[in-house]
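Inosine triphosphate pyrophosphatase, Oopsacas minuta. Tokens?
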Amino acid sequence: MASVGARKLLTFVTGNPGKLREAIAIFGEDLPWKLVSVKLDLPEFQGEPDEISIQKCKIAMEKVKGPVIIEDTCLCFNALNGLPGPYIKWFLDKLGHDGLNKMLAGFEDKSAYALCTFSFHSGKEGDEIMLFRGRIDGTIVPAAGDNKFGWDPIFKPIGYSRTFAELDGDSKNAISHRSKALTLLKQHLQ
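Tokens:
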């Protein structure tokens, strides 16, 4: 197992530098692990979030050959029984923020939730893949704030007057679905 000083390497399979920055900020420096990233082309599986996360982690384990984490994020509209869910990336690419809002035009219910699932494998043969989930409820609103990070401009968390995109990084990291999942993972790794 590779290490840096006394810290072991944990590979976060992502090509998204924003996700890596958020994960490093949330993890902090008090872990015996150093988080690094690698971009791998993993298949886009279909199914339920847990199934998708486990399948991606299995493939990542084979390629990384060491401790690995995979993140899968869903944006789920309650009026659409959880869709677009794990397919949010593709819906956003094709429809944009406006199109996602239009999907709910015929519904009074604009509520949604963001779900983040991290799958972790220790890199040791025989160990099971572990799942860590974080969820935050909110509302789908017209885009507001910077357009730097996915669907953040259209998701306003419950209890907040601003979208994820309008919150500063520390405020978002304190409440986000990713933060909740990573906090559970961090507790496990400690």
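The radius of gyration is 17 Å.
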